[in-house]
Amino acid sequence: MSNRVVCREASHAGSWYTASGPQLNAQLEGWLSQVQSTKRPARAIIAPHAGYTYCGSCAAHAYKQVDPSITRRIFILGPSHHVPLSRCALSSVDIYRTPLYDLRIDQKIYGELWKTGMFERMSLQTDEDEHSIEMHLPYTAKAMESHKDEFTIIPVLVGALSESKEQEFGKLFSKYLADPSNLFVVSSDFCHWGYEYYRTIRPRIF
Predict the structure, then answer these.
(1) Are strands 95-96 and 7-8 parallel, antiparallel or unpaired?
(2) Which InterPro entries match (predicted)?
(3) pTM for this structure?
(4) Nearest to 127 by CA among 27, 34, 9
(5) Nearest to residue 188, comparing CAs of 13, 35, 50?
(6) For residues 53 and 8, what is the distance between their CA atoms, to the nearest angstrom?
(7) How do residues 43-80 score in pLDDT, each as one tens digit?
(8) DSSP state of 131
(9) With the CA atoms of 64, 176, 105 and 8 taken in that order, what torsion angle do they form, in degrees rounded to the nearest 10?
(10) Model confidence pLDDT, tens digit, residues 166-194
(11) Closest CA to 184 of 54, 109, 76
């Protein structure tokens, strides 16, 4: 049995956002410093997944509400752009890399989700092609940096779900949402045409 750790590279670094750790850190700090922590601690946030040039300042409104002192698991739900899915899918790797530091997937929670039989498995190629989850990784790392060895992530790729499947997955995830140490990040393209208006069209905080 292999104990080899499998990593997903930060495949959109250098194009959708800078691959330089120090430069990325400075950008995130700058955006976060310009917004207020008004609804902290958030239990769930909805934030965009475009390139940071377009949505970096907008996403800061959401991530400013994250409380790293109580957050231990972060569920990141992103829509599938490259492969057809009628269900949700889980990653096949152990680590998601970012220019800031590596993020560990919670294999215990993944094990619980796999046991339901409700999930497909992402190939590494699909995982690295997809941007909807990756665009939230640097902000997640930044928001949690003061407790970076004390949390895990649970990335979930979301397909085109029927109403009945939405209800099934909603019921499944509701028990995790009920735990105050869990944060849900919902990745959205809700406003590709209007990120510049982030002062009036802000991410949702719950």
Answers:
(1) parallel
(2) MEMO1_fam (IPR002737)
(3) 0.87
(4) 9
(5) 50
(6) 23
(7) 999 888 676 878 878 899 999 999 999 999 999 999 88
(8) -
(9) -70
(10) 999 999 999 999 999 999 999 887 654 44
(11) 76
